[in-house]
Amino acid sequence: MNREITIDVLLGEEKEEKLNDRIFIKDQDEYPTISMKLFEDHINGKRFKSYEALYNEVLDFYINYTVNNKQTLTDVTLSSATDANQLERMIMSKIMMGGNLIAMNGRVGMANIVLMNPITQYERFYLSIENNNNLNGIKIITDHKIDKDKVIILRSETLKTSSTGVYVIKSTDNDQYFFKETNNWDKKIQWFYIK
User: Which of 39, 75, 98, 153 sits 20 to 30 Å CA-CA off 134?
Assistant: First the structure.
């Protein structure tokens, strides 16, 4: 509207007094706005050796985080009366609870990865796991490095779906990779123990 009035006055289609009809927005502090946050981070590349070494570095990162930080989920406690079906339901409920906490705190979505020891998967949690290591849409990744009594629940993202998380980017031009966690990435991880 202001632009049209000014143009009309300049072209002589309106009188100069019409400039007094223009509306100006007051100081922006009076009008709150929503805008994106942009973050910049400098990451040093590391020499790429193999995908197995990269996998181990990422897995060690998550395992070390669960060792050095306080967990928010309570543990699954076994008793002498706990049978296999009951134990499985307890573990599934705890995984879903952790996934919901990730969705609530991370504000992106529910967990989509569970890390556990193969012994945990096959001896304590074998009834609900489908053949493709998928549990209600959550991918199960097993590794012997994970404590057999620990279950780690994660939300994995891609650069297209989220701006927070733990990112591993491999350069296609040379033998380098970049590994970095962003602000608030820790809102996408939960874990508990089976005792």
Answer: 75
